[in-house]
Design a protein that fits this description.
Elements lengths: L1 H11 L4 H6 L13 E6 L2 E5 L7 H12 L4 E7 L4 E6 L6 H12 L2 H5 L5 H20 L6 H20 L6 H13 L7
Antiparallel strand pairs: 1-2, 2-4, 3-4
Helix pairs in contact: 1-4, 7-8
């Protein structure tokens, strides 16, 4: 039953037969913090699964279950390193299917479905918080970054409308609209 689930997970993640023929390397594993390929040659693959470290009971259960898959000649799992080594018949099962079976057996599907947060986004948010704090301290609590930005946008909008006479659409009006929505808590504001 688990091998069937592994095949389903493999197909849901977009692994195509022609991709397997073109490249013997597993295409499935794109979440290195959850599961990653340490080494792979056709018929032998080593996976690293950090969540297995120190979980002897899970390792024993996984070892027994994976050992029953007929095309698998040998499976070695280490609770010390979180390593899973498969020696398998490459003509009867793919590395992707074995990886999908491990994912299914360990219940890692939810981890793979979670939204990822790129490091760059975290860094940019940290920069924005630092800049916000600097503006707040420089103005002695009168403004924060968001408020200052909306005031600048409003001033630019008014300036454009005055300069271009009345209805300077879209630029001036758009800037005022953004400023108003930001300051007064409407769409995406505070």
């Amino acid at each position: 039953m688990h091998i069937i689930t592994g095949l389903v997970v493999s197909s849901l993640l977009g692994i195509k037969k022609k991709d397997r023929k073109k490249s013997e390397s597993p295409a499935l594993l794109k979440a290195p913090s959850i599961i990653s390929v340490v080494h792979h040659i056709p018929g032998r693959i080593r996976l690293r699964i950090p969540s297995l470290i120190g979980r002897d009971d899970t390792v024993a259960r996984l070892q027994e279950t994976l050992g029953r898959i007929e095309p698998v000649r040998r499976v070695d799992i280490s609770a010390t390193t979180g390593s899973v080594l498969f020696d398998y018949d490459k003509n009867r099962v793919s590395a992707d299917t074995l990886a999908a079976a491990v994912i299914r057996l360990l219940g890692l599907e939810r981890e793979l479905e979670k939204d990822v947060q790129p490091v760059l986004v975290d860094e940019l948010r940290g920069f924005e918080r630092s800049l916000n704090r600097a503006v707040y301290e420089k103005t002695r609590g009168a403004l924060d970054l968001k408020t200052a930005l909306f005031i600048v946008l409003a001033a630019m909008g008014i300036q454009k409308m005055v300069k271009q006479g009345g209805m300077a659409l879209p630029a001036g009006f758009t800037l005022l609209w953004w400023a108003g929505n930001g300051l007064f808590g409407q769409k995406g504001g505070r």
